[in-house]
Amino acid sequence: MKILCVGGAGYIGSFVARGLHSKGYQVEVLDNLSSGHRAALFTEIKLHHIDYGEVSEEFLSGFNYFILLAGKIRVDESMDNPWLYWHENVFKLANFLDKIPQDSVVIYSSSAAVYKPKNHPLKESDYLGPSSVYGATKAAAESLIEHLALDKNKIRAICLRYFNAAGASADGKFGEDHSPETHLIPLLCKFALGQTERFVIFGDDWETADGTCVRDFIHVEDLAAAHILALEFLKKSDARFEVINLGAGTGFSVKQVISELETILQRKLKIEVSAKRPGDVPFLVADIQKAKDLLNWSPSFTLSDILKSALQFHKSKPTGYPDFDS
Ligand SMILES: NC(=O)c1ccc[n+]([C@@H]2O[C@H](COP(=O)([O-])OP(=O)(O)OC[C@H]3O[C@@H](n4cnc5c(N)ncnc54)[C@H](O)[C@@H]3O)[C@@H](O)[C@H]2O)c1
Fold first, then answer.
1. 50 within some domain
2. Residue 268 covered by a domain
3. How far is the CA of 301 from the centre of ligand 1 (A)?
C-alpha cells in the first residue's frame, strides 16, 4: 500500500496521516497548506506542498491508495461564494481522479451535509438533499466517485460521511485550528478559556427539545481509526463502492454541549443567542450500524472526552499551530 493523504495537513487529515504513520503504513501527504499546518504532522511524514488541482499523472503513479480530504469546508462561505466551492471541491477532484492510476483505492471525506434530514438517526440509504452549496458539492463528489467505481471500473472507493468531527489528541498537542473557526466545540472552548470575547448560539427556536440544533459529535481519533479500517476493508475485499456514516450515533443539542462543558469547568458561561444561519438544519444524527457491520468500527470517546481534549489543545496552543512551511 502506497498511500497519499490529500489534505493530510488539515484537522482530520493530520490525525489520519499520523495514525497511519504510527501503525507503520507507508503514507505521504499532499496539501497546499491553505488551511492546513506543517506542524500538525510528524516531521518524518513527507509533505508535498502542492495544490491537488495541479499534480501530474507521473507523480500520482507512485501511489495506489488515496485518502481525499482536501477541499473547502465552510457552509457559510459556500453560500456566499458557490463557484469557489464547485471549483475546489468538484472540478479539482474530477481532474485529480482522472489522473490517478487504474485500479486505485479511494477513501473520500464526505459529510452529513449531503442529507435532507427528515428523520433521525440518518441511514446511508436515506434521502439526499443538501441544504447548502457545501453539501451539494460533497454529494456531487460522491456521485463522481460512484460513477468511476461502478460504471467506469477505474477505482474502488468508500465515501465516509462524517458527522461533526471534534476533539484533540489526549496530550493536547494536536487539535483543530481553522481560521476563521466556525465549528462549535473549538469556538466554545476558546471562549471558555478567555481567548475570545463572545460565544453565540445560532437560533434557539428550532423544532428540537430545547430549541437549539442537535448534532452528532465524533472524536477525530475515532474518525482516523475508521479510515484505517476502511483501507484494510478495501484491501481484503473486492467491494467496489460503499458509503458509510461516521458519527457517535448520539445527538447532543448546542445547549447540552454547553452544559457538559460547564460541568467540566464547574462554572457557568455567559452565552448569547442570535438568528439562525442559512444552510443549517435542526437535527443531524448518524445511524452507524453499517460502519459497525462492515468495518467492525465503533466510537470509543464520549462527548466529555472530546471537550476535555479540545480544552487541553486550545489551552496549550492559544494561537494555534506555529506557522511554517516545508
Ligand atoms: N470537520 C468536520 O467536522 C467535517 C465534517 C464532515 C466532512 N468533513 C470533510 O472532511 C475533510 C477535512 O475536513 P477538515 O475539518 O480536516 O478541514 P481542514 O480545512 O482542516 O483540512 C482540509 C485540508 O485540505 C487542504 N486543502 C484545501 N484545498 C486544497 C487544495 N486545493 N489542494 C491541496 N490541499 C488543499 C487544506 O490546506 C487542509 O490542510 C473536508 O473534505 C471536509 O469537507 C469535515
1. yes
2. yes
3. 22
